[in-house]
Design goal:
- The protein is mainly α and 220 residues long.
- The chain folds into two domains: 94 residues, Endonuclease Iii, domain 2; 75 residues, Hypothetical protein, domain 2 (Endonuclease III, domain 1, Orthogonal Bundle), CATH 1.10.340.
- It has twelve helices and no strands.
- The chain is elongated.
Length: 220
């Protein structure tokens, strides 16, 4: 596959922002600190963008840095992040992350993926989101959209996101990594949807294994 052409087509069709906690009404990817990216991505787990945005904005307006969040009353954090769902677990998780960043890293989120993964509640997708959206470093965050689309296109044949991440890192040149999550997330929400992909609108049909297998015979 010509990955440069794939990126070019997706950008021409869907060059809008993506970021855990982004306001769904805005097209730009917001400028967020690594700490805000880290906490917002944790809050985004198993919830919708609009709810992540509400919870993140409320939380950061009261506790804008690791020290403040680490020392925040747990019940108040729960109340602030309630829109994100699973707020009892998430409140303890983000407070613990903030405490460790404050105490062990002098209030600076680590830029090393192994140190990020050592934070309880931080998986590979979250760690890679911090690298991409917080530090502007090339990485491949794989969420459900990236996993699904990679398999539909035929780039990967994998059963879980971590396997997909390895394949994408092997297959796609590093110069494109920083674009992959943003473009595939937007593509997955607007065109390559989970249950009803809108193939008639898709700019990648000639690159897509799914289209070849499911739709091509219907056109003959």
């Amino acid at each position: 596959m010509d990955y440069g052409e794939m990126i070019k087509r997706l950008k021409s069709e869907l060059d809008i922002g993506a970021f855990p906690g982004k306001d769904p009404e805005e097209n730009e990817t917001p400028d967020r600190s690594p700490f805000e990216v880290l906490i917002s991505t944790v809050l985004s787990q198993r919830t919708k963008d609009v709810n992540t945005h509400k919870a993140s904005e409320a939380l950061f307006s009261s506790y804008p840095n690791p020290k403040a969040l680490a020392e925040a009353p747990l019940d108040h954090v729960k109340e602030l992040i309630k829109p994100s769902g699973f707020y009892n677990v998430k409140a303890e998780r983000v407070k613990n992350i903030a405490r460790r960043v404050h105490e062990e890293f002098d209030d600076k989120v680590p830029e090393d993926i192994d140190e990020l993964l050592d934070l309880k509640g931080v998986g590979r997708k979250t760690a890679n989101c911090v690298l991409v959206y917080g530090f502007g470093e090339p990485a491949v965050p794989v969420d459900t959209h990236v996993h699904r689309i990679s398999n539909r296109l035929g780039i990967a044949e994998t059963d879980d996101p971590e396997e997909t991440e390895k394949v994408l890192e092997e297959e796609i040149p590093k110069k494109y990594w920083i674009e992959i999550n943003r473009l595939m997330v937007v593509f997955g929400k607007n065109i390559c949807k989970p249950r009803t992909p809108e193939c008639e609108r898709c700019p990648l049909t000639d690159m897509c294994r799914y289209y070849e297998e499911v739709y091509k015979d219907e056109d003959r």
